[in-house]
Structure formats: C-alpha cells, structure tokens
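P.,

For your records, the input lines for the assembly:
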Amino acid sequence: MSDVVEKTLTALPSLLSLDSQPGSGKLSSTSKLGNLIRGITELTSKHEEEKLIQRELSSIKEQVASPNTSMRQMKELMVRAIYCEMLGYEASFSYIHAIKLAQQGTVLEKRVGYLAVSLFLNESHELLLLLVNTVLKDLQSTNLIEVCMALTVVSQMFPKDMIPAILPLVEEKLTHPKEIIRRKAVLALYKFYLIAPNQVQHIHNKFRKALCDKDPGVMTASLHIYLQMIKENPEGYKDLTASFVTILKQVVGGKLPMDFNYHSVPAPWLQIQLLRILSLLGKDDQSTSEMMYEVLDESLRRAEMNHNITYAILYECVKSIYTIHPKAELLEKAAKCIGNFVLSPKINLKYLGLKALTYVVQQDANLALQHQLTIIECLDHSDLVIKRETLELLFRITNAQNVTVIVEKMLEFLRLSKDDYTTIDLVGKVAELAEKYAPDNEWFIETMNTVFSLGGDMMQPDIPNSFLRLLSEGFDSTEEDRQLRLFAVDSYVSLLQGEPGRLPQRFLQVISWVLGEYSHLREGLEPATTLRLLAKLLDMKHTSSETKSWVLLAMSKLCEGPDCVSLAQELSERHGGSLDTVLRQRVQELRHLSEDAELRASVLPRDAAQEPLEVDSSLSFLDGFVSEALSAGAAPYKPPHQRQEELAQAKALSLEPYGLSLPISMSSCSLADRQSPTLLSMSSGLSGNSTDLSHKGGSTTLKLDGVKRVWGKDGYLAQKEPVEESAQVEVPSPLCSPSRQGGADSTHSQTPTPTPTPEPEKEKQQLASSLFVGLGSQSSVCLMGKSEQTPQRFRRKAKGQGSSSGASEQISNSHYSTQSTVDNLLCNNLLDSTVTSDLAVSTPEQTPQLSQEVATTNGTCDAEQDLIEETDPGNSPSLIRANSTVTADPPAHKDPDRPKDSCLSSHLPAELAGLSHSEIIPLCSSQNLDLSACHVQKEDALLLVIFIENSSDSDIEQMLLQTESDELEVSCVTDSPVEAVRSLSVSVYQYSLMVKRPAAHVALAGTASYQLPSGESQVMQFSYRLPLTSFIRPLCVSTEEYGTLWLAFSQDTKQNLALLNDGQDPLTATLDVLKNKLQLHVVDIIGAEGIVACRLLQGQPCLMHCRVHAGSLAVWLRSPVPDLPDCLLYHCQRALQEH
Amino acid sequence: MMRFLLLFSRQGRLRLQKWFTPTPEREKKKIIRDMTTMVLARKPRSCNFLHWRDLKIVYKRYASLYFCLALEDQDNELLALEILHRYVELLDKYFGNVCELDIIFNFEKAYFILDEFLMGGEIQETSKQIVNRSIEASDMLQEDDNSDWYEVELFG
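Structure tokens returned:
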C-alpha cells in the first residue's frame, strides 16, 4: 500500500508540469526550486510567504558563501535566487555570485550565470565592471555557444563607457562564418548605436556589408540599424532606396526560404521594417517616392489573407502611402484599406483603423466624412481605449464650427478618466482648441474653468500662463477685451462665493491674478468684497504658500480705503510671523502699499499689464558687483556645463556617466547663454520660490511658440469664414469631387435613410452633422485625388504666423500698398529691363520716398524683434510687471534707436547706397556693441546688412559673426570679414540670402562673439525675420510657356480668396492688387480667368491660376517647390485683406 | 522597439519579466504594479491595446497567463500581438502543450527561449525551427558535455 502511495507521489510532479517532452524532462519540481514553488502556492497569507522566502533566502545566502558549494549547486541556487527576486524580495547578496558563475562555470552554468546577471543588474550597476573581463574572454572563445551568450548579454546591458573595450571583438564577429553569430553581432552593434552612436560611427561601411549579407537573417538584423540611421538623416541614405525596394519586392514575391514564413506570410517582420524605411526615405521626395509606388501597390495586393499579420502589413503600407509623395491611385487603394479596418467587427482592427484615420485625416478630411457614423459609434464605445483614440481623431478635425461639440466630448471623457497621463494630455488639447476656435467669450471662460478644475495641478504650466497672457494682451478691439475680462471676473467671483476649497491651486492662482488685475472693471463690485473673498482663501487649510503669495499680490493691487488698511494690518499680524519668507515679504508689501495709495499706483499701475518690461538681459548692472568680487579674489563664474566638463575631465574614469549630466536643469542651462537671468528673476518674482519655479519657467519657454497666441488676433476673423464654408457644405455644389460624393453615398448606404429613422439613430446623425461640419468644404480641391491641406489647417497656419508677428503687422499693413508699388518701381528701376511693367523708370524725386517707404514696411521686423524678446522669458509679461519692485529698469533704450537709423545708413556700402533699404533695426546690444541690420532688395539677390557699432572707448578684437537658419541659405558677401571693430566706429557685414525652404516668414538666427580688450570673450545672440515676399520676383512667361510649366509642376494648393469689388472689373482689380503688392506677373486675363506667374530669387517658379467663381476668386497654385504655393497663398490672402 | 515584456497570472503574480532598456528597480516595481492592475481590469472582448504614459501596451491572455508587451510610439500593435503569439508557439513547441506550470517551474528555460527570439528589444529570429534547434541543442549539453557534437547539431 505504502508502495502505491509513494509511486503516486513521485508521479505527481510530472503530472503537475505535464511533463511529456524532452525539454521539460529534467523537471525541477522535485528539486528545491520545486519545493519552494509548491511551498508558496500552499500558503494563504502574504505574511507567511514573506517568512518562507526570508528563510529560503538565508539558506541560499549560507550556501553560496560556503566554499564547498560546487558550480552545479551554485547554478541551482541562482535559479532560486532569481525566483525570489521575481517575487519582489531582494537577493543582492547573490549578485556577485551570479557574476562568478558566469565567469567560472561550464557552458550550461555560465548560461544561468549570465541570465542571473542580466536579471539582477542594471546598466549602471558597479558590479558590471567585473563582468567585462568575462565577456571579453567569451567573445574570444572557440566555443560558439559561449560567443553567443556573450553577445546576448552585451546587447542586454553593458556599461556605456566600457563599449570601446569590446567593440573590436564584436566588430570582428561581423565576418564570422556562422550566420547566427553575425546576426547577434549586428544586433549588439545596433544596441551600441542606440546608447552611444558616435562610438560605432567608424563601422558604417561594415553595416552595408551586413545589409548585403547572403543570409536573410543577418540582413534583417542590419535593417534595425538602418531604420535608426535613416530616421536621423534620410538624405544620407537615398542611394539605398533601390536596394530596399528590390529586397521588399523579393520578399513580397515569396523568394525567401520557407523558414521565414509566418503563418504562410513571407517574412512579415522584414516587410514591415522595409516599409518603414521606405516611408522615411520617400517623405517629401517625389523622385524617391516614385521608385516605390510599384512595390507598395504589390504589397497591398498580396496582403489579402484574413489574419492579423496581413493586417499589420496593410496598416504599415497605408501609413507609408500617406507619408511619401502622394500618388492618386495608391491613395485611393489605401483609403479603401482604411475603410476595411474601420468597418471591421474586430475591435483591434477598428482601433487601428481609427489610428490610421487620425494619421491621414489632415491630408484628406473626406475620409473622416465617409466614416462619420462609425466614428460616432466608437465615440460611445464601452472600451475607453477606443473612445480615447476617437477623441484623438476628432481633435485633428476640429474647426471653428464643431469645436463646442468636440470639446464637450473631450471634457466628458476627462471626467471619467483617472489616468494622470491622459488627463494632462487631454487638458492640454482642450486648452489648445479653446484658444484657437472659441466661438464666444462665455464659452471660452467656462471651458477654461473646466480645464483648470479638471486638470488640477498636474497640467502643463504653460496652460495657465498662456491663458493669462491672452487675457492681459487682449485682441484688436478693446471692447472685446473688456468683455472677456468681465466674464472672467464674474465667473471667478461666483466660484469663490461657492466652494473654493475644491479648486486646484493653479486655478486659485489664476483666479487671484485675474481678480487683482481686472475686478475693477466690474461696476458695483466693491474692492472690499473681492478682498474678503480672497482673504478667505488665505485661511483655507489646503492653500499652498505659493498660492497664498499670489493671493496676497492680488490683494495688494486691490487694497484701497480704510477698510483695507485694517484688513491688511490684520493679515500682517497673522502671517507676519510665517516661516515662509516670501509670504512674509508679500504681507509686508501689502501692508505698506495699502497705506500709501500713491506708492501703490506707481508700483502697481492699473491696466499696464500688457506693456512690455524692459529687462537688461546682460545683467550689466551687476558688472560692478562682479568686478569687485573678482578683485576681492572670488573665482570667475563658469556656466554649469563648463563646470561639468571640467569635472568630467578631472576624473580619469567616470563611473557614473548618467548621474552627472542629469542635474543640469533647463533654467541653469540657459543661464549660461546669458538669456535667462531675466527669466530667473522674473519667475522668482512670480512666486518667490526661485529655484523650482525658475525651473518651471524654463520649461515654459520651450513651449511658447505659435499656437498659444493664435486666438488673440484672428480668432474672431475666423467667425466670418466658417459661415461661408458651412454654406458650401450644405449645398453640395456641382463641383463636388467623386470622393466627396462617395462619402455622401456611403453614409447613405449605412443608414436606412428614407425610412423613418429610429430615435437613437437620429441622435447619432445629429451628432454627426455637428461633428463633421465644415470638413468637406474644400472637397473640390481633391479633384486630383491628391492630398491637400485642408482649408482649416491652412488658416490655422496662417493665423499662427499672423499672430506671432502680432500687432506689428497692423503697422506694416497700412503701408503695404505704397510699399509694393515702390517695390515694383524698385524692381523696374534697378533690375532687368525685361520685366514688362507699365511703370516707367522712377524719377529722381521718387527715390528718397522709396527708401523711406520700404523702411516703414519693415517696421514689421522691428516690432517682431520686440515681440521675440517679450515672449522669450516664458511668462506672461504682466505677471512680470506685477513684480516691478524688483526690476524697475526704466525703458532707456526705447527711442534713441530711431535717429541712429539715419546715421547708420551712411555706413551702407557704396554699391548699395543707391538702392533702397529697409529700416535699420537694432538686433541686440551690449555695453560695448550695438548690432543693427537692414535688408536691401536687389534684382538678383537679397542682401542682409549688419552694422556693428562700437560705442566704447576701446577696440573690440576677434569679432566673429555666425548665422544659421532653417529656411535660408546665408552666405557672406564681404570678402575679408572684419575682425576688429575700432572704438567708436562702425563695421558692416553683408550677407546674401537665398530661400532654402519657403515659409511665410523666414528667419535667421545668429551669434556675434568678440573679445573685450581685457581678453574676456563675449557672445551675443540675435535673430532677424523677413517676409517671403522680399524674395519674390515677377516671372515673365508667355501663355504657351505657362501652359507647359503648369503641367510639369506637382506641388499644388487651392483656395478661395476674397474678390475685390472696386467698381471696375473685379478680377482685374484683384489681380492688380496682387501684382503690385507681391510683385507677381500677370500673364494673361481671359474672361473670368487669369493666370499669374512669379519666381523665387533663385528662379524657382510658382504659377497661379485664378477664376472668378460664385463671388470669390478660386485660385490654384502650382510649383515644383513644396510649401511655396501655401506661403504665397498666405501672402495673397493677407494682401487682399489689407487692401 | 520593445521596452519590456511581462508575463503574469490571473492573480497578478509575475511569472517572467524582461526589460529591454535600463529601468531603475523602483520604476520596475511600479510598472509591474500598473500593468497588472490595468490589464487585469480589462473586460473580455475589449481591444488588446492600451496606453500607458507614452508607451503602447499590447496584451493577450493565453489560458491563465497574461502576456504584456510595451512598445514605443511608432511600433505596430498588430505585429506585437503576433510576437506574443510566436513566443507562445515557441514555448508550446519546446514544452509540448505548454501551461502556466511549465513556465513557473522552468522559468529559466522560458528566458532562454526568449533570448533566442528577441534581442535588444527587436526580433532576432522568427523561425520556430531555428530557435528551437538552438535551445534544444544547448539543453543536450546537460547530459553530454561534448561541445563538438553540439556544434554539429546546432550549426549544421
């Protein structure tokens, strides 16, 4: 009997593990590990488990330390230690033994040793250094298995600074006769490339060899490296396109061995990798794209099986097709493919369909229209992931008409979501949409209230910052500003009267700032009432001290009258003893200011929020202090990165390469380039908590571009246009494109339209109509089936540019008309005589006026300069001003620049003196040097002239100017660049500018470095911006030539422009305005159509075809240069608006 | 690139973890906790993809075991599902009708198979035959420590 029991018991473990294969034959369930595992499963409480593991660990510890333990036993112990670690108990005592096992064991023991090491240790663990030798030895081993293991562990985790030690050995393996070794070596190098790219730079040609390896596995492995390298520099690998295409063709054609098939699909991983590479190569590159059309088509065709893996390939294909230069036929197929995804009953495919739609919808909004009902269904899907993805899609198609519905949906989701990351992301998106498309003040303020309360203190700090800036800077109409501010004040007062305890700190800060600044706008609202509401915040338990100082600051702005004095006194008694020094300071300020109304008015003037604050960014007022300190023996200041470098050099072998470089925060980095002392002082003034706040400020600076300011100026302009658009949507014009009609059809076929629709269906349709309104408006644009920018997108872009130049644009606008005639004159006058223009050579009297006019126009640049300075610090200027007690530098430099203009222009080089130049505007200045610049339009060139004026008594040596620009090619014209600027003299630099990449406004940035007589070197930074129109010249072609050119160009854009109605023929009038303002050449006008041509300076043409249609001017632009049509269109729009 | 792979049971017990990028210990613990709670809370027949911070999580349940793979933004989710599937196939081929217990008791084998299949966060070998051949061959060493013979077996 006992025999039977025993037999059954011994059979148990094998039953447990279903032991039927040779692999599991040596089951360890009878072993100690098996005992441990079974022991744990029998336990019921966490506490018992802990006890058991601790016992186990101490027994392991004892055994590993014993000298009698054999390597075989050690292996077994390691496995148990790994198990304990996996359960979450630390077994750090075993780490060193794992390394020893990897070092000394036989092949099998080594394998466990390496495994344990890779599980236990991190790349930065110091014990890893002990492994380097083992790896070196194994890499040189004749046993292939050992080499394999070494390569695996190397790709797993290896100290970065030890890579050079083993790199030659790994490199050598690229030519190993066994493909498995070559493959692993390639992957190890890929890993090295990711963590230390410059260390493997010298082996790039060996990567090419790997790409050409006869073993497809090695070739596949090398693609990982290529994908990475091409991502970083697509230009450098265009020559490989043909090879990649050939490989893909062979793979798709089933030329690989069967081994590579996965569920009878040939090498899907390889296919997808290649598709990704191709899409990177073909992006914005027509000729490269043309090479891959055929194979993409074939991939689409071949992937027909109904299996996840084919869908994976299809998805990647679709993405490639929409990334590379478009081809109508392929786009059509891809769109159909997306349809299959979206309509699939499988939820995973639906999800990917939504993603694909999100990816392509900006190029082809019609696709979203086609699938609107599915999108609506997904929006109500029970799976939050699907819902979230749908919102992402809606975010992309938001316009001024559907914004309220979409934002409502997003907020609905936000209320459900508990995930911080999603909340931060969505809140940011809602804020962006609200600023961009808000239909009215009330909605905007209410939406932002929800954003602030839902986003809480997690949201990006730039959201409240830009919101406050929007309020303080205002828009065109002061009445509009006032309304918005009033709404905000009313809404906040009622919030504070409710339960302010629930509001997040950030929101309270916003509220107190707004109330402090604008509550006086509301008639009937006594300051005392507001003060009481604010004072209530100070007493709340959860109010942070940062918020308290915001509140106190707001109170200082408001306190007026005897009541307030007593309130201030009471507060100062209560908080005067606070441990927080900032708080104490604020309370003191409040008390003093409440007693002295005059002082308060001068320190905190009302309604001055938008006046820019003059900040001396070079901190020159500290120079005296610094030199004093230096002479007293203080060490000279070194920027943090320099200190880091020196520290790193001082250490012979740095064991902690990561730890050191991390602490350089944003703000301290920028401290070095002499920009951010301003930033620092401002943000510290903001809240008084200097270090961590300056950090926040730093991160804000980075995000301050474009978008945030968009709503300000043109947000209200947008209201007019959408109406026209929607009208177009509702009345489908006969011009409707096939794809648009297709869209309409498909929606019909999905819903049983003629029959009375059931209620929920109706709701959905209503929702659909409110969501997708305004999307198909430009459908006629898609005639070619080519991807186009949607009108919305264009307008947004235009707005971004328009508003970033801010109010200054207005200034230039008024002069625009005169300017362009002037430009035209200029052109005729100075440039080639072939320009057919009705204007004759300018008379001598005209010339002085000329230059003056051009100068005024370029006031744009000047104001833009101001603007850049203003936005740079990254915080709302008004907030800064509130802190004016700290930085009370009077605007000394404001006007003296103007007279400078005339004296500087005398320094213009002789050959340019006769030409008209733009206004000379100051770029930057230090106590020794002033940099100014202007541009001069020549027929064949655009010259940038930079004046360097040395106002000090000493000469400046080693003057070096460097410029860079994404959009411009800058070349120095001056033969021998000046190196020294004599005292009290002016040096002139000339640069010739060419457009590299068209943008509505092009800018260049530069640095000027020089050496003071004391030997100290200095660096200044500047930037210069000018409109693309400066580079545009008329292009004289005949109607026939125009026809040929038209067919040859591929980049095109369409848009409707406003038609001028000046009494005479509207088409001619409109074209004349464009011709005069933008220097276009009107080739011909035939009936209701006109053709116009122009070129960029270096000769790239842009053609424009205009047709009067339904009261507006339908223009169609074509050019060989991407972006040029869009930019020109932008300027056309502007020119007509200004007219 | 893949960031990490986790295998855990229905009870949220970790069965296998693989980190393809260096991750601090504390972070690992947090990720494991987040993943188990997130994935286990999913209703049946919802989609297999999730968002977590800036990563995409692809998970799939095989019997009592959850396989959970984290991807970077540009990676293909469907393909990742197939990576998981291929790994299960490999385990299945090796253990023969694999179940959770095989992986519990032989977790080191599961790691070895994984190391032959994925390397440095990318697919290394997609062929079932080749992966299995190399694993079985090195297992043979257990009985017969003759590397010559082994090399013949593994490398042809």
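Two observations worth noting. Residues 84 and 144 of chain B are 33 Å apart (CA to CA). Chain B has one domain: 2-155.

Regards
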